[in-house]
Amino acid sequence: MDSINRNQPETNRRDLSGSEAIKRVKDMTDDADTCFFCTAGSAGSTNGVRPMSVRKTDDAGNLWFLSANDSHKNLELAANPAVKLYFQRDAHSGFLELEGRAEILDDRARIHDLWNPMLKTWFTEGEDDPRISVIRFTPQTGYYWDNKHGNLVAGAKIAVGALVGKTLDDSIEGRLMF
After folding, report:
1. pTM for this structure?
2. What is the pLDDT of residue 77?
3. To pair with 155 at 20 to 30 A between CA atoms, which of 15, 66, 95, 134?
4. Residue 126: inside a domain, yes or no?
């Protein structure tokens, strides 16, 4: 048992697999919207780390991104498809780490499905920009940290716990297996 959890009267660990893991990822990534996308290799000055916007998380648990086919990221993925993603939903809860594989696709129908006019900032020719590629990230494992009942309840439990000198943490965490 972890020492920080020794005084915890509630169960605060729950590993998830299959459809439960996918639901957790979908809920958290829909709220977080962006992540740090970390490739194994580094062809640029970012050491393989860059912020990315998730365009969609599908019902199978795949995360979809749009990327420039001439980017360092795509070059790194072509050499090694291993990727880690790090999410933070808000300042106090909703942390997620995922490890998996990324695949670069040239799928015009998927680009159409994922397109948003704000992306024209990066793809100046719009949805038909020939530089757009699709990245499908398939998670293999992960870990999450969250609260069980929302930030309001979690904050109240922490405040009451501090007042009475008892651990009343509303956190939940666990491994994700797909």
Report:
1. 0.85
2. 96
3. 15
4. yes
